[in-house]
């Protein structure tokens, strides 16, 4: 029987893939992933935890502005603070408080995150929109270990949905990731995390920025909340990331596109899912999470 990594390769994922702790991973990341649990964590660290394409860039920039106390963009891309991707030396160079981001499940994070009482912000998004966004990104993205310049994914849209539902997409299976983060309060009873929904941020970004600032113990003026919301609008943040930020930690993309910023909207899945695909997705969602698909 083939592994999820083998099924992903057969369906059109163009990278050397292996299995690690039940997840499909790119081979070039394995050494770093094996050492993640031993990374030094500071009490002042703030962790942003998301499933891919759930508003990570958006929220990371907001958190940086909250900590800075003003609507000023961080110098680098969020990739500069990617917990499982950067080296120990690179992370050590970051000034405190560090806003680290990760797509890891709670059980794969350094235990010191919980022992030291770090602030943790978890963002969740409609998974159908995540699938659409991931499909478009991976259809243009050129991974580090792909010197031929092939896009990360060259298979069909239908197969991509299948890979998602069966936990075959790197770097983490959606349902396992969601279940762990949903139940984190039971596993880490002394840890209080801030739960944010992408859709709530789209509906009232100022309100959610204020809520995150209160959680971090860094309340700001109403004007600053509005300034941060405006600076982190899709149009402005896209421009900042492509034109203003240091590109040291930026990945390669086909056709010169940034890839990370496509539409930044909710409900785009309705333009991509057929009725049959949507119904199948809803069925699997209900089976795995024991709840009706809420969107």
Account of the 3D structure:
The chain has 295 residues and is an alpha/beta fold. It has one domain (4-289): P-loop containing nucleotide triphosphate hydrolases (Rossmann fold, 3-Layer(aba) Sandwich), CATH 3.40.50. The protein has helices spanning 4-11, 30-35, 56-68, 88-92, 112-115, 127-138, 157-165, 174-182, 184-187, 198-203, 205-216, 222-231, 234-244, 275-289, and strands spanning 17-20, 23-26, 46-50, 99-102, 119-124, 141-142, 194-197, 252-253. The strands form 3 sheets. Strands 4-3-5-7 form a 4-stranded parallel β-sheet. A hairpin with a 2-residue loop joins strand 1 (17-20) and strand 2 (23-26). Helix 3 (56-68) packs across helix 11 and helix 11 (205-216) packs across helix 12.
Name of the level-1 CATH class: Alpha Beta
The overall pLDDT average reads: 90
- Give the total of beta strands: 8
Query: How much is the radius of gyration in Å?
Result: 18 Å
Binned, the helix content reads 40-55%
Question: Runs with pLDDT <50, length 5+?
Answer: none
Which structural class do you get from the secondary structure elements?
alpha/beta
Number of helices: 14
The major beta sheet can be summarized as: 4 strands, parallel
**Spatial sequence of strands, sheet with the most strands:** 4-3-5-7
| Second CATH tier, the architecture | 3-Layer(aba) Sandwich
What gross morphology would you assign?
Answer: globular
N/C terminus separation:
35 Å
In CATH terms, the superfamily is: P-loop containing nucleotide triphosphate hydrolases
CATH topology: Rossmann fold
Share of β-strand residues? 5-15%
Helix-strand sequence: HEEHEHHEHEHEHHHEHHHHEH
